[in-house]
Amino acid sequence: MKLDKPVTGGPCWTELGTSDVAAAKKFYAALFGWRAETDPRQEAGGYTVAHLGDAAVAALTPLYQEGQPVAWNVSFAVQDADAAAAQVTEAGGTVLVGPMDVFDVGRFAVAVDPTGAVFQLWQARSFPGAGLLSAPGALGWVELLTRAPERAVEFYTTVFGWSVNASEHYTQWGIDGDDFGGMLTMDDKFPHEVPAHWLPYFAVVDVDGKAADATEAGGTVLMEPTSVPDGPRIAVLRDPQGAVFGVYRAADEK
Ranges for the VOC domain (predicted)? Predict the structure, then answer.
């Protein structure tokens, strides 16, 4: 199943916090064909929305806080940001920012789960989130990488009510049984200093071609294009400023 629009509890938006917004605009335009528009209002702080056609698909932002890493962040849609933030705390997570209003477009909060992964809550008003999901160049899958998978399952099923489809090697998250993301257990191959985190995957037509395009545009291939048995073809990439993300082509897309 593919989510083709934001739904309550599901991933609805992804933002890149970067040390060089201008360079990020250039890189992702070359890779995905994104057209970036920066909000001119001073109080918007340089917030830049990337589009495919007329559809908003992601955001690029400066680093707003000292010590903030260059990284992609994932937002999940909620009906009530304040109530969801309270659930996060009750379930053992921590609210780092907010909840707070963003002009008239919505209300958001930044939180960290008990395993150390940061994520965002988004209560839509005039802006529901991504205008495209699971289309080439748009967000299509989100993956939690964590060293405490059992604690993560307990937390996210409590906060969002997700369904869990677990196999020996991989766990998938779903809403009413329709999977939108997964969870990978971080083992010794991951450096100790790499924290738990959410990794966005963008849909593409040609995974191998995008890996080559990323390298040509100044990025790095962290995981070479790989076909998952009975699953998608995937690669993990890093942009020139250091943000990590994935690309994939679903197994049923021939």
Answer: 10-124, 138-250
CA angle 61, 63, 67 (to 5 degrees): 155
pTM of the model: 0.95
| Helices 207-216 + 21-32 axis angle, to 10 | 140
What secondary structure, in 3-state letters, does 133-173 show? CCCCCCEEEEEEEECCHHHHHHHHHHHHCCEEEECCCCEEE
Among all chains, which residue has been given the structure tokens 């997700």?
A: 162
Q: Which of 253, 8, 251, 248 is nearest to 138 (CA)?
A: 248
The residue assigned the tokens 């395009």 is: 213
Q: 17-35, pLDDT tens digit by residue?
A: 999 999 999 999 999 999 9
What is the rounded distance in angstroms from the CA atom of residue 48 to the CA atom of residue 104? 17
Q: How far apart are CA 166 and CA 186, in angstroms?
A: 16
